[in-house]
Specification:
The structure holds two protein chains of two kinds.
Chain A (H helix, E strand, L loop, with lengths): L1 H42 L4 H19 L5 H15 L9 E5 L6 E4 L3 E5 H5 L4 H16 L2 H15 L14 H17 L4 H18 L5 H10 L4 H10 L3 H12 L10 H7 L16
Parallel strand pairs in A: 1-3
Antiparallel strand pairs in A: 2-3
Helix pairs in contact in A: 1-6, 2-7, 3-5, 5-8, 5-9, 6-7, 8-11, 9-11
Chain B lengths: L1 H35 L10 H8 L36 H5 L4 H12 L4 H10 L13
Classes of the chains: A mainly alpha, B mainly alpha.
């Protein structure tokens, strides 16, 4: 009888203490579960729909930064060359290519297959193989989700420091979230370099895509070799900031492209027929927008 | 005898002076000639110069100018909007919000498709590879 009373008191005490214990420790448990869920979501690759929406918002941001060079014939040609190379990439992504209206020499890959090349870069190329090699390198960045992984790694770091984090799971982010993501992605593309591993993978795969497409494998190497001989901080400053040193890249690409030999098309004439910049009136302040 | 000695010393001194006088012009002439002769000996190198010489030659020698896509008298500064003198992107560019026109252009870019027939023709004309890689969703 005495023992039964003791058990009853113990059970009553536990029942009374349970809500308080849940309030105290359940919060921690829930927080841990939420955080684990967020980490899992942050590491999940973006779905094709998310990639498209994020890529398009980032493309708008890139266009707002430099403007587009809207020459339909030249843009169509760049899309044909880019898609001829992108057909060799294994991941099914719809690729879209455009020309940025800036004299700086660069090319950018955004999620969802949005790829930009600058008119400064086009003006300094000599052949279709050089253009194909450059675009194939950017295709390889998209194919390997390099920028996505880089942004995701930064988000994980933010989680670790308990700062704000935009979670969207498998849904397509809303307009405000897209704007924030686009800002992160374009800032990353314009101010930071890819990791050496990503850059090396893009060099290797890009050369492979261009060579399998039927172009001379050393197209990108040829272009970079010419850039390495130049001394133009304004045109090349961003490239130098966001890529490994040009002489190092040329040496790497020489080794990567060597097994393919000199086979493959260079198509200089077709390139020069399609890529030429007409003289502009001296008084015109911006791009020609032909 | 003493006078004879003095005479001899005087004669010797005069001889020395005469020989010296004869010897001087060729030395001066030699100096002058050196100016016209090609240098046979390089000036002594400083430590820094020596260090530079010991380093391997750079991979790419000489600098060339890059082409501008704009041709015109005032085109030198065109096409660098939002770009600093060292190629860095200005903060105002990174902070700018896309306009509705920019959003529309990005939308148009996303909707642009290369027609499969046009791509095949382009590939054939360029004698490129008509086969593509098998695709995956991953």
């Amino acid at each position: 009888m005495k023992r039964a009373r003791k058990v009853l008191i113990a059970m009553l005490s536990m029942a009374l203490a349970a809500p308080a214990a849940h309030a105290q420790f359940g919060g921690w448990v829930n927080k841990g579960v939420t955080k684990a869920k967020k980490v899992q979501e942050a590491n999940a690759p973006w779905t094709p729909e998310q990639e498209k929406a994020i890529g398009q918002a980032s493309a708008a941001k890139m266009i707002s930064a430099f403007g587009l060079y809207e020459n339909p014939a030249m843009v169509n040609y760049v899309n044909l060359v880019g898609n001829a190379a992108a057909r060799q990439a294994p991941r099914d992504v719809p690729y879209h290519f455009a020309i940025l209206d800036t004299e700086i020499i660069n090319a950018f890959a955004l999620p969802g297959g949005y790829i930009f090349i600058t008119r400064g870069a086009l003006a300094n190329m000599k052949s279709e193989a050089e253009l194909a090699g450059t675009l194939a390198h950017e295709v390889a960045h998209v194919d390997g989700r390099h920028l996505e992984k880089q942004v995701r790694a930064k988000k994980n770091k933010q989680l670790a420091t308990e700062t704000a984090f935009e979670e969207f799971g498998s849904r397509v982010p809303g307009p405000a979230e897209l704007m924030n993501l686009a800002k992160d992605i374009v800032t990353e593309a314009l101010t930071t370099s890819y990791s050496p591993a990503s850059e090396s993978e893009a060099d290797k795969k890009g050369t492979e895509f261009a060579a399998y497409a039927g172009y001379r494998a050393a197209g990108l190497r040829d272009f970079l070799e010419m850039l390495a001989k130049a001394d133009d901080a304004r045109r090349l400053g961003l490239w130098q900031k966001t890529h490994p040193p040009l002489s190092q890249r040329v040496a790497t690409l020489t080794a990567i492209s060597a097994p393919y030999g000199d086979a493959g098309q260079t198509l200089e004439e077709r390139f020069q027929h399609n890529v030429h910049f007409a003289p502009e009136p001296a008084s015109k302040p911006g791009g020609s927008g032909q | 005898m003493r006078a004879h000695r003095l005479g001899m010393i005087g004669l010797l001194m005069a001889l020395v002076v005469a020989v010296s006088a004869l010897a001087l012009p060729p030395f001066q002439g030699g100096k002058k000639d050196k100016k016209d002769q090609p240098k046979t000996q390089e000036p002594q190198k400083t430590d820094t110069q020596k260090k530079t010489d010991e380093q391997p030659a750079p991979l790419f020698e000489g600098k060339m100018n890059l082409k501008s896509s704009r041709q015109g008298k005032d085109s030198a500064s065109l096409g660098f909007s939002g770009v600093g003198p060292n190629g860095e992107i200005e903060q105002k560019v990174l902070q700018a919000t896309p306009t509705s026109a920019d959003l529309q252009k990005a939308n148009d870019m996303g909707n642009r498709r290369v027609a499969p027939d046009a791509l095949q023709l382009f590939i054939l004309e360029g004698q490129l590879n008509p086969q593509g890689a098998p695709k995956s969703q991953k």
